[in-house]
Amino acid sequence: MNCSISGEVPEEPVVSTKSGLLYEKRLIERHISDYGKCPVTGEVLTMDDIVPVKTGKIVKPRSLTAASIPGMLGMFQNEWDALMLSNFALEQQLHTARQELSHALYQHDAACRVIARLKKERDEARSLLAQAERQAPLPASAATANVSALSNGKRESEDMGPGGKRMRPGVSDSIISELTECNAALSQQRKKRQIPPTLAPIDALERYTQLSSHPLHKTNKPGITSIDINLSKDIVATGGVDSSAVLFDRTSGEILSTLNGHSKKVTSVKFVAQNDVFLSGSADKTVRIWQGSEDGKYDCRHILKDHTAEVQAVTVHATNNYFVTASLDTTWCFYDLSSGLCLTQVEDPSNSMGYTSAAFHPDGLILGTGTTGATVRIWDVKSRGNVANFDGHTGAVTAISFSENGYFLATAAHDGVKLWDLRKLKNFRSFELYDQDTPTNSVDFDHSGSYLAIAGSDIRVYQVGSVKAEWNCIKTLPDLSGTGKATCVKFGTDAKYLAVGSMDRNLRIFGLPEGDDASTES
């Protein structure tokens, strides 16, 4: 019989009267003095509960291999053979590791040479481009446009009014009439609005998975900060930390154009539904208007320099003739798209908070802005007056999205997402999705107003309910970038796919695989 502690035959066996277990006397005495309980059952145990067991003195037999000199020699030979085999295996592993290290060093050296050559070619190309720009004459039309867009240098002094403030032409009565007519037409259409039959059903969204991943931005400055989709052409635009904007054809899987010109990260990108125009805002305090051509290339038509701090958001009016930019300089600007002229720059003296997000209401007469001070400010576009403020968030308001139904507003901040009823001007639901160290970065209603997507450390899709009915989470998609930070999300046409940007350089498309899609439709 063996000791219950050591598992060996005891020299002085004792038995517990409580558990009946056999122990080595010296081991159980030490355990009782340290812990006062049975090592196996955990019961309270004292030395009074231990009874010695009397046994005859037995000499332990010697193993057969150690009973003779030939047996011992054979045992030594077996141990030597095992040692030699182990040594041979270690030498093989060392040789393999040396080969892998040599190959890795060769690849690293080759990669360094390629990078050095590419940098040299890049610098040469930049030099040639700068030389060509100095030599090329500026067209008269471009010169006229640039003069109207300039807001610094000699032209700036001519546009200054009393108090050093820049003079603005203002929003004329004809523009207000245009905005009002657009609002009336869209409001009338909204009353007859129906959910399109081609909208992706809930059971389809539940099966969404990653369809593709596309490395659009540079590796030395990874990170996608904003996304927009041209629904009519199925083109996805991304703005990156690498100070470029990329236009990507989702159908063909090819990059259509990479727009360079900003000197700092691109914070906001926006398509204009008409005339193949694209807008980009940047941390370099500028906004650029890009005009597309028949060959698919985009040229910078205007550079707007009306802000004095980072431009955080760009949003286009429903007429597609005007747009608004919001900046950390505590102002937002209302622009005429065709001329690139800032018609008015709105600054509230009572507000010292910079703007971090902005979006037009679908009808176009209401503008929503998020601030660094966790407040959502609602503006009347015609009067440029602040008509409502929504408080309750923690941290900067990172994103704003109006529902197509016209009376729901979703806002995202460090503490999660809040839903607001624009009819009663109150918060009716909040989603606190992540821990206190993980902000919510993006929120987006689909075009039908049936689904809501939220991006933070993952991507979540909710079915839109009502003020009283629950908003159910349909699907949670992981952030496959490995950064733990999904920065932007946007629904595709009929919510058939989701475009997601993260803090790596890849655009990810989530949706149904082709086979699954076909089975769903059937």
UniProtKB/TrEMBL annotation:
Keywords, ordered alphabetically: DNA damage, DNA repair, Immunity, Innate immunity, mRNA processing, mRNA splicing, Nucleus, Repeat, Spliceosome, Transferase, Ubl conjugation pathway, WD repeat
Pathway(s) this gene product operates in, as recorded in its UniProt entry: Protein modification; protein ubiquitination
Catalytic EC class: transferase
Catalytic activities: S-ubiquitinyl-[E2 ubiquitin-conjugating enzyme]-L-cysteine + [acceptor protein]-L-lysine = [E2 ubiquitin-conjugating enzyme]-L-cysteine + N(6)-ubiquitinyl-[acceptor protein]-L-lysine
Domain U-box: 1-70
UniProt record similarity statement: Belongs to the WD repeat PRP19 family.
Function (record text): Probable ubiquitin-protein ligase which is mainly involved pre-mRNA splicing and DNA repair. Component of the MAC complex that probably regulates defense responses through transcriptional control and thereby is essential for plant innate immunity.
Protein name (database record): Pre-mRNA-processing factor 19
